[in-house]
Amino acid sequence: MTVTDAETATGHRADAGHPPPPGPRQGPADDPLLTLLGLGADEDAVYHLLVDRADGEPADLAGRLDPERVQRALDALVERGLASVHRERADGPPRYRAASPLLALGPLLEARRAALHRAEFLVTDLAERHRMTQVRGSGAPVEVLSGSTARRRGRVPRRRPRGPT
After folding, report:
1. Chain-centroid distance, C-alpha 91
2. What are the CB-based long-range contacts (under 8 Å, 24+) for 114-120?
3. Coil, helix or strand for 162?
4. How far, rounded to the nearest angstrom, does the alpha carbon of residue 125 sit from its chain's CA centroid?
5. Cβ–Cβ under 8 Å, residues 97 and 50
6. Which of 45, 68, 127, 146 keeps 20 to 30 A from 24, CA to CA?
7. For residue 147, what are the CA distances in angstroms to 4, 13, 108, 144, 152?
8. Pairwise CA distance, residues 66 & 73, whole Å
9. What is the pLDDT of residues 65-104, one digit of tens each?
């Protein structure tokens, strides 16, 4: 049986009783997106596998990843609250289940969003400081504008209202 590029990239086999992934990852723009939220590439891959299953044992999730890497990723996911672990029998193997992406990833997403807002403010502040330094360095007179006067003259950009993101 031939393994497709999508199966190789995700570790999913269409004939293994699991739904195929939404689409193959093909380039840098499709790198593991959860790494933007602070997850490692292995954690991202294993979390995606867990999301597509009701639950699974580490051996079921290994696919093309080294079993030790899968176990480390599972431990990290459990520690972060992105997965839970249970045993069907006391002497049985541990089974892992993905936490709801909305509940588990929402706080990570909000933290990144807040960090981006802080960075945006910093860039605006640095740009204004740079502009003031350039004006002072040129010896030109400086007119200080603030509030609605500055907005009318186009010196201070209006803040866009925050909408749903």
Report:
1. 36
2. none
3. coil
4. 27
5. yes
6. 68
7. 60, 60, 34, 10, 9
8. 11
9. 788 999 999 999 999 999 999 988 888 889 999 999 999 8
